[in-house]
Specification:
Layout (H helix, E strand, L loop, with lengths): L1 H24 L4 H10 L2 H12 L10 E2 L5 E12 L10 H9 L5 E6 L6 E3 L1 H9 L4 E8 L2 H7 L3 E6 L8 E6 L3 E3 L2 E3 L4 E5 L2 E5 L4 H25 L2 H8 L3
Helix pairs in contact: 1-2, 1-7, 3-7, 5-6, 7-8
């Protein structure tokens, strides 16, 4: 009975993927494209980028979510450079402007130079992003105020958790510029896809092809699950479906 229920659940998942695929394959611009990436698994997106372009598009292994998260959206980028100063928050005003000007649905991508011991995001910034409708934040640096971030359920990925501040230690160096975030180049408008496996960045000009391939990979993998449950063999499944 349990095996039958698992099979039914897998078939239902396949149906969802199929319907999503039918919707998105015919709509490859703007919001519909981003919507498609919200439904696929990040692992499939990473595989699609590697298969189509021979490119590693996923961030370092220590870029982790503070809580359970899944989102996708176009990147809004910010760079902070390490520089001791006495200007207080004035040195970071451009960072605040980037948040206030970010369109709803976008992903805030911040690089804090040599910043694993400094919190680039905290409760105030996360609250502002939440109320402005951002999809999430990805910070190559630290995060703090985790109880507040958890309370408002705003998705944040960071490379560390620390209690420190960037105030008087960093200076705003640019917004909506190309940055290297946790090993991956991110340009403004590139599509950032994140789930519990990590973060992948898709160049916007490749997004339609990558989404289509990722959906195909998802469909194949989810087709394999009931096959494995029925025949109890991973080798037979790989042989039949041609994917591991």
């Amino acid at each position: 009975m349990m095996r039958m229920l698992a099979g039914i659940a897998a078939l239902f998942c396949l149906l969802q993927l199929s319907l999503t695929g039918l919707k998105i394959y015919g709509q490859t611009r703007g919001e519909s494209l981003v919507e498609g990436f919200r439904f696929v698994e990040v692992a499939s997106v990473a595989d699609a980028m590697e298969q189509l372009y021979g490119k590693r598009a996923y961030m370092y292994h220590d870029m982790r979510p503070l809580d359970k998260a899944k989102f996708a959206g176009p990147a809004v980028t910010v760079l902070l450079n390490r520089e001791e100063n006495h200007d207080g928050s004035r040195a970071l005003e451009g960072m605040l402007d980037a948040i206030d000007q970010a369109p709803a649905g976008s992903v805030y991508v911040m690089v804090v130079q040599d910043g694993l011991n400094y919190a680039g995001i905290g409760g105030l910034m996360s609250t502002a992003m939440k109320v402005r409708g951002l999809a999430g934040a990805v910070v190559d640096g630290g995060a703090r105020d985790t109880p507040q971030i958890s309370k408002i359920q705003f998705p944040v990925f960071s490379r560390s958790i620390v209690p420190s501040t960037t105030v008087n230690h960093y200076r705003f160096a640019g917004k909506n510029i190309t940055v290297k975030c946790a090993g991956v180049d991110v340009r403004p408008g590139d599509i950032v896809v994140a789930d519990m496996d990590g973060v992948v960045v898709v160049p916007v000009e490749n997004a339609a092809d990558v989404l289509k391939r990722a959906q195909q990979l998802d469909f194949t993998e989810h087709s394999m699950l009931p096959f494995i449950e029925r025949y109890r063999s991973i080798r037979e499944a790989v042989s039949k479906f041609g994917r591991l």
